[in-house]
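Folded chain entry
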Amino acid sequence: MAVKRKKKRLKLPGQKTSVFLNGRLIGFHESGPSLARELREKRRAGTITHEMNVHYNRGTDEVYINTDSGRARRPYIVVEDGKSKLIPSLIEQLKTGELSWSKLVKLGVIEYLDAEEEEGAYVALTEPELLPAHTHLEIDPVSICGVTVSVLPYPEYNSSPRITMACSMAKQSLGTYTVNFNLRTDSRGHIMYYPQQPLVRTRPYKILKFAERAAGQNFVVAITSMQGYNMGDAIVMNRSAVDRGLGRSVFYKTYEAEERRYPGGQKDKFEIPAVTTQGYREEKAYRHLGEDGIIVPESRVSTKDVLVGKTSPPRFLEEMSVFGVMEEKKRENSLAMKSGEEGTVDSVMITDSLSGNRLVKVRMRSIKIPEAGDKFASRHGQKGVLGLLLPQEDMPFTKDGIVPDIIINPHAIPSRMTVGHLLETLGAKAACLSGKFADGTAFHGDKEEEFKAVLRENGFEEYGEEILYDGVTGVQIKSKIYIGVTYYQRLHHLVSNKMHVRSRGPVQLLTHQPTEGRAREGGLRFGEMERDCLIGYGASMLLRERLLEESDRTYELVCDKCGSIAIKDHIKNREYCPLCDSTSLHYVEMSYAFKLLLDEIKSLHIFPRLLMRDKAR
């Protein structure tokens, strides 16, 4: 098969190569390749700075020299004539401390390439792969991965979308994000109770000291279906293990209130509001407050309980009393728990804000025990929600009495092509038996044969499969089940922080439709697809209820003569049409959004009429 070669740009006689320095044209040169070669040689010899990068573009016959700041650069071992310049004697000197990294860079053994110079480099992954054409060698193949990918075990065995998912979920895992979390007032923070190091870990994981900030636990995992409760990506979890602390975490949330100053010299005040205060809540809401109006630590609070009692001056200063005498009125402006939240007051901090006002920060603590709907994920993008918590006595068990912590669905593996997940399970099982951590570093991790040998030595089936017994009946399960240990992360998508329901509540001022979002006690959106579904079923009355009666139904007066919206004068107790002064009016049921549309059409100087007709016709 003939291979099409890239056409070289023909160089006209006397035409010179353009030379750019940091994007600016500085002149021309007889030969671009020889200039680039000479600059590299001088850089390696230490004659010019090692922070300079040079690239010759064959297609445009231009040389780009970069020395500006902010370039992303990577170190590579220099290769000459197919041989690495990092010879064994230099490695020995590095080990003894005679040589340093900076010295290797000065000697021209290691050089940093930026994105442009990398375009012209031919890089080998390992030393045995070196060919005369190669220009550079990777220091370690794992260095092609970023920080997040490098801590994942066996990423080269997984499909790329799963690696991307595993990266994004590793950032959502609960662990110990800082050791002094107890002294901080972060807006929100999750701390895992018993974080563990993974049994299969990578070299970058150790180098980056992630073990000191672990964010997960080693779960005993069985891969099998469980009565449909782990259908799809759901998982079945051992309730007894959860009771013993598996996957348990604590959630911290900080509320803050400030005594603000206002232009008229008035200011807010922290206190228990008096009964006469405008907007006073029921007495029960203030039951946890101390004499200073600030909540007492370790108080157990629930929805709408006041954390900091605060009164503010009235919005309008010229408020007169019944007898015409000016009196100081106060407005209730306390800091209270949001709807659907509860917990224990962990700590209260009283300080001054930057503007010099008194500031109170109340940190809430709530223990989050795994429950149905919480999200868990392995380090291979295999995410799933908890579908069932099963008591230990009902879980399947091995002949040695080992009961899995979680059961995942076998269908999750083949289509996702996450072979790394199975390999980690096998490696961690071998690590449990050998007492040594397994190495899952990309391209250089421990091999499957090593794990199989350890399992064989300890009397286990070499592929990690075991015979399990049904926990309910005690009968042996016919097929062998793959069981081992996998590092699982609990993600901060907790069902208790997302659960939301509403029967009635606040509505928007403009459209009179329910508000949006959990924080505003909003309704659940009934969209076009849901509407189409009801139309398909012919459930017209349910559709009417959802989109009219439960949303923004209103009754408006409509003029029989001119078809415009009429008004009711509550002072004169009179109903009339403002356009034709007719009193022949009728109440018409409509959506408030429709009434709003009519008003907006009127603002465009178009007069919409509503033609009245008897319902009986």
About this structure: The chain has a mean pLDDT of 91.
